[in-house]
Amino acid sequence: LSEDGKYYILNGEKMFITNAGWASSFIVYAKVNGEDFTGFIVEKDFPGVSTGKEEKKMGAHGSSTRPVILEDAKVPVENVLFEVGKGHKIAFNILNIGRWKLGAASVGGCKGCVREAVKYANGRIQFKAPISSFGMIKTKLANMAVKTYMSDSVMYRLAGMFDNKLGTLDAEAKKSGAENAKAIEEYAAECSISKVYGSEALDYCVDEYVQILGGYGFCSEYPAERYYRDSRINRIWEGTNEINRMLIPGTILGRAMKGKLNLLPAAQAIAGFLMGYSPLAVQLPDTPLAQQEHMVKMSKKMALMIAGVAAQKFGTGLTKEQEVLGKIADIIMEVFAMESGLLRTLKMINNQGEEKAKYQIAAVKCYVDDMIPQLEMWAKQVVAYVEKGDMLRTQLAGVKKLARYQPIDAVTLKREIADRIIDLEAYPF
Ligand SMILES: Cc1cc2nc3c(=O)[nH]c(=O)nc-3n(C[C@H](O)[C@H](O)[C@H](O)COP(=O)(O)OP(=O)(O)OC[C@H]3O[C@@H](n4cnc5c(N)ncnc54)[C@H](O)[C@@H]3O)c2cc1C
Questions:
Q1: Could you tell which of 56, 240, 242, 248 is best to mutate to test the pocket of ligand 1, judged by most ligand atoms within 8 Å of the CB?
Q2: Number of structural domains, the chain?
Q3: C-alpha of residue 66 to centroid of ligand 1, in Å
Q4: Contacts of 170 by beta carbon, 8 Å cutoff, 6+ apart
Q5: What confidence tens digit (pLDDT) does each residue in 83-128 have?
Q6: What is the CA radius of gyration of the chain?
Q7: Domain range for 148
Q8: Which three-class secondary structure string do you get for 96-131?
Q9: Ligand 1: which atom is nearest the Cα of residue 238?
């Protein structure tokens, strides 16, 4: 604070500030008296504020990226954002919403990839046929669209969760930024899922888009090359995907340890469930997604079981077991994605009938079919690290039972989805 008490004097430098080249003000977080983490609105023309050299980047060339430099920058006390010492509340909550928005924006990119890739594939003739008629290209188109559908469903689902939660606030609370932020914070883990899942779905789609274009995918004459470069930053900013992966189980287990979530008793109950569970004896109803509904339910149990096994073994030391946390995050994230696509499709069947939801049903079937063996493998890898001897054998048998699944004919379903994309020359759902 300046001697007259009118200004905070800020010093420091922050790399990589998006649009610093043309921003007229910056939100800066700094410690007051070396302790109180505080937000400030800093205008570019304040004395002591400058920006450094423009970064030369791989992509996102439409944006400016520069360091912001504060050298005895004089910031009026009224420019404190919220309250001194409460900057973390703003920073973390901005990140929550930012992560969800990044995921949602990535879905737009994914849809663009499907559309542009199929247009090219329909026009490119090789061996006297459009390349879109080849099975391997069809698989790529279908996989891109299916992943996009799951990502889209994750984003809509979380938007619905926000809406529902914010709808419970009374009129006074609705006007309070702090109350809104507190409501959103409840979904911090889902925000991280949106960020990681959305950015990786996009990277998957841009990679296949490049591949479908062959040599032209690598040349800047076609947009695929730019999509490929522009997509890459999404796994890095808003908290890298590694940091967000740790936050997914970290947030959930942290709540459980504080007694806010009944996670550990629920995880322990799975041992009892497994004793009486016989996958072959399960009678499924005659509904279009009965098997997928059942497998999503079993996958949730698998996620709980694995989180419980790891939490029991390591306790608070689990934060140091990043390899385990990463796999638990992947399991939770994929279960959330499968369930999001499933719930959305069930709603569609309910509202519009099975025929109208035909391709969405196929998408959910294909995705669940791809994911169950993957989830089983991750779960077994965690168990193999955590347990030994008899416990290892018991837990592996438990995972195997939960993942017991009758594969479907995904080749035919993916061909049907691809044919729809090829006919429409667009994202098909
Ligand atoms: C184009 C661009 C624009 C940006 N815009 C902004 C902006 O507007 N505002 C802003 O504040 N920031 C911005 N950033 C910064 C961005 O958020 C960071 O670059 C990002 O969070 C990663 O931090 P880092 O670069 O220091 O990488 P590091 O922290 O050095 O990470 C390097 C690698 O190590 C991994 N790693 C780091 N710590 C751990 C750990 N504990 N456990 C496991 N792995 C770990 C990371 O995941 C990563 O893979 C921008 C960056 C870029 C490139």
A1: 240
A2: 3
A3: 14
A4: none
A5: 999 999 999 889 999 999 999 999 999 999 999 999 999 999 999 9
A6: 25
A7: 87-239
A8: HHHHHHHHHHHHHHHHHHHHHHHHHHHHCEECCEEH
A9: 17
The answer to whether the Cα torsion of 376, 382, 385, 386 is positive or negative is negative
pLDDT at position 258, please? Answer: 80
Picking from 53, 81, 109, the residue at the C-terminal end of a domain is 81
- With a 6 Å cutoff on the Cβ, whether 243 touches ligand 1 is yes
CATH number of the domain at 67, please: 2.40.110.10
Pair 211, 304 in one domain:
no
Cα separation values, 324 from 192, 330, 335, 337, 379, Å: 17, 10, 17, 20, 10
110 and 193 inside one domain: yes
Q: Using an 8 Å Cβ cutoff, are 375 and 403 in contact? A: yes
Q: Answer whether 58 contacts ligand 1 (Cβ < 6 A).
A: no
d(CA 70, ligand 1 centre) in Å: 20
Quick check: CB of 395 below 6 Å from ligand 1? no
- Contact by Cβ (8 Å): 419, 135: no
Distance 195 CA to ligand 1 centre (A): 14
How far apart, in whole angstroms, are the C-alpha atoms of residue 31 and residue 364?
48
**319 Cβ inside 6 Å of ligand 1:** no
Q: Do residues 75 and 138 both lie within one domain?
A: no
Q: Which atom of ligand 1 is nearest to the CA of 18?
A: 8
Q: Do residues 409 and 318 both lie within one domain?
A: yes
Torsion of CA 173, 177, 178, 181, to 10 degrees: 100
Residues annotated catalytic, as ranges: 238
Tell me the CA–centroid distance for residue 208 and ligand 1, in Å: 26
Beta bridge partners of 49: 70
Q: Is 232 in the pocket of ligand 1 (CB under 6 A)?
A: no
List CB contacts of 9: < 8 A, sequence separation 6 or more: 1, 2, 48, 72, 73, 74, 75
Residue with tokens 């023309």: 45
CA–centroid distance, 84 to ligand 1, in Å, is: 26
Interface confidence (ipTM) of the complex: 0.98
The structure tokens listed for 301 are 């149990």
**CATH, residue 273:** 1.20.140.10
Q: What is the pLDDT of residues 140-183, one digit of tens each?
A: 999 999 999 999 999 999 999 999 999 999 999 988 888 898 89
**One domain for residues 38 and 100:** no
- Report d(CA 330, CA 377) in Å as an integer: 11
